[in-house]
Amino acid sequence: MDLESDTGHLTKREVVTRAAIFFGWLIGLMVSMAAIGLIPSIPIFVILFMRVEAREKWHVVLAQALCLSLFVYFVFDRTLHIPWPPTLLGRAFPSLQWLPSV
């Protein structure tokens, strides 16, 4: 790939810290997906990540969260009919299993 990244000005500790923060966010997303499902986790993750890490404005954050959630819902649930794995919330409250990916 022709992607160039300029991290020469960063110390090794800063690079490792940034990587740890990034993987922390990913682990948090995976835990959330196991607990409440993929589709409900997406807007939560996008909102938290964009507000905490990127400090984006609310209208940008909410638009991204909504668009990404709708995209995943229509592509994976409605179009491809992906069978969603069971979640902790779905097992604890079976009446919520009508929600996609719960």
Major β-sheet annotation:
none
Estimate percent helicity. 55-70%
Write down how many β-strands occur, each being a DSSP E stretch of 2 or more residues.
Answer: 0
For the residues shown, what is the average pLDDT? Answer: 92
Q: In angstroms, what separates the terminal alpha carbons?
A: 37 Å
Radius of gyration computed on alpha carbons: 17 Å
In sequence order, what are the helices and strands, one letter per element?
HHHH
Determine the structural class based on helices, strands and strand pairing.
mainly alpha
Overall shape: elongated
- Give the percentage of residues in beta strands: under 5%
Number of domains: 1
Low-confidence stretches: none
Number of helices: 4
Describe this structure in words.
It is a single chain. The protein has 102 residues and is mainly α. It has one domain (12-96). Helices cover 66% and strands 0% of the residues. The protein is built from four helices and no strands. Helix 1 (12-36) packs antiparallel against helix 2. The protein starts with 11 loop residues before the first helix and ends in a 10-residue tail after the last helix. The mean pLDDT is 92.
Descriptive tags:
4 helices, mainly alpha, 66% helix, 102 residues
Short description:
By secondary structure, the chain is mostly helical. Helix content is 66%, strand content 0%. It has 4 helices and no strands.
